[in-house]
Amino acid sequence: MLNVVQIQTVAIVLILSYFIGNFQTAVLFSKRFLHDDVRKHGSGNPGASNMTRVYGAKWGIVTFLGDAFKCFLGVALGAYLGRLWGIAVQKSALDFALGGYIGGLGVVLGHCWPVLSRFKGGKGVACFFAFMFLSFPLGGAVTAVFAVVVFLFCHMMSLVSMTSSVLFTILCLVNHAQRPWLWIFALLCTLIIIVRHRSNIQRIIAGTEGTINY
């Protein structure tokens, strides 16, 4: 059980990482460098996929990396505060603090439902991919390869995002059942990503989902 100080730490990590997630990389880049707002085009989603469709692969990649970096900041902040105030899962270098998991989750929540953008955010995929490599590098690498293969077959980023998230959660369960916080947070992030892709799921079923082709 967490004590009062640890509970306060969890709350602080969640709040700070949530606001880190509020910074919408796609919106910042499209306004600052392209003098436009990506939310006015395509699907209206401020994420890497829509940036790719509207402005090209270069801006999609830059946006993906920017969103991934947000997660790195949230995880680093959470891990630091977690170790500082004693909410670490393990003290060994093979794991990082529970605060890191909470920080990653906070960034995903802030990215998907940003209060600074009237709760209209992205879908959390790039943030979750960063979380994968930070928490379980081998699982993240396997998931990345899987994502590339699925994309080459279907060219649907929505399907790639959802199936990759599910795969990573399964890998966590199979390989790290003794680290419950890892697969619990992976599962939570996967559920968030699926919820954020509700409209995409409907279009996939109807056969009208958009693709990215080169």
Could you give a quick summary of the protein structure above?
The chain has helices spanning 4-21, 25-32, 48-55, 57-85, 98-112, 125-135, 137-154, 157-175, 180-196, 198-206.
Count of distinct structural domains: 1
What's the average pLDDT?
Answer: 89
Query: How would you classify the helix and strand content by structural class?
Result: mainly alpha
Give the H and E element order: HHHHHHHHHH
Tell me the Rg in angstroms.
17 Å
The rounded distance between the terminal residues' Cα atoms is 52 Å
Low-confidence stretches: 90-95
Residues in helix, %: over 70%
The protein's oligomeric status is: single chain
- Sheet-strand content, in percent, reads under 5%
| Shape verdict | globular
Beta-strand segment tally: 0
Biggest sheet overview: none
The number of helical elements comes to 10
Provide structural commentary.
The protein is mostly helical and 214 residues long. The chain has one domain. Helices cover 71% and strands 0% of the residues. It has 10 helices and no strands. α6 runs antiparallel to α9. The radius of gyration is 17 Å and the shape is globular. The chain starts with a helix and ends in an 8-residue tail after the last helix. About 3% of the residues have low confidence.
